[in-house]
Amino acid sequence: MNVNEEGSKNVTIGASPDSVNRKFFSGSIDDVRIYNRSLSSSEIYQIYASNLYKFNSTQWYLLVNQSQNISTALISGSYTYYAAATDNSGNKNMTLIQQVNVVGPPSAKRFIITNSSNDNVASLDDKGDMYLRGIVVQSQTSLSPTNNSFIVTNSSNDPVCYINNTGSILLLGTITETSTSGATTTNLEIHNSSGDSVAFFNNTGD
């Protein structure tokens, strides 16, 4: 809402400006802000998407429901964020820059692993994103795959990785995210519908 100056008239919040037939707002009004300039659409959206409130006498909480805009969610990728504050004396401080990885919903084209009850416990889609019901356990010294596991073996037929019946993945090596290289002839490769390699397990379980 834009408020234009009209002489000496007061700005009234929660009631009509007519002092004779004044009507009052029935309800509660929270987080009132008055700016001395017009805000851009992106500034208005950031106010809509975030909420800074005083939790107690010493703590403030900042909640952010971030998306591209009011109708479009964030696409898959890595995003950085930080919080900064300035007091009335001009003192400034800010947090460390943090990173959050956003993974969108699985593609309809995906390789699905089911357990002994035929429930989906893991999937790898044609974007190279892996979804697990369980946890990731890396850098194991040895592997003893349990019954009903999906097992990846190396060229010597030794297990280097497996996904168990509850959707946890256990590896001799480590997982590398957003990798663009490293494919060799001994890999188990996952290809999308265009024939592009989107994921692989190598001979050492990485």
Ranges with pLDDT <50 over ≥5 residues? Answer: none
Q: What's the alpha carbon Rg, rounded to whole Å?
A: 27 Å
Largest sheet: 4 strands, mixed
Percent of residues in beta strands: 25-35%
Sequence of secondary-structure elements: HEEEEEEEEEEEEEEE
Count up the helices: 1
How many beta-strand segments? 15
Shape: elongated
Share in helix: under 10%
Oligomeric status:
single chain
Q: Kindly name the structural category.
A: mainly beta
Distance between the termini: 56 Å
Mean pLDDT: 76
Strands ordered across the widest β-sheet: 10-13-12-11
List the helices and strands and how they pair.
Elements: H1 41-49, E1 50-54, E2 60-64, E3 77-81, E4 84-86, E5 92-94, E6 98-102, E7 110-114, E8 120-125, E9 130-132, E10 136-137, E11 150-153, E12 159-163, E13 169-171, E14 188-191, E15 197-201
Output the keywords.
about 5% helix, about 210 residues, 4-stranded mixed beta sheet, elongated, 3-stranded antiparallel beta sheet, 1 helix, mainly beta
Question: What does it look like?
Answer:
With 206 residues, the chain is mainly beta. The chain has a domain of 92 residues. The protein is built from 1 helix and 15 strands. A 4-stranded mixed beta sheet has the order 10-13-12-11, with no helix packed on it. Strands 7-8-9 form a 3-stranded antiparallel beta sheet, with no helix packed on it. Strands 1-2 form a two-stranded antiparallel sheet. A hairpin with a 5-residue loop joins strand 14 and strand 15. The chain is elongated and about 90 Å long. The model has no long low-confidence stretch (mean pLDDT 76).
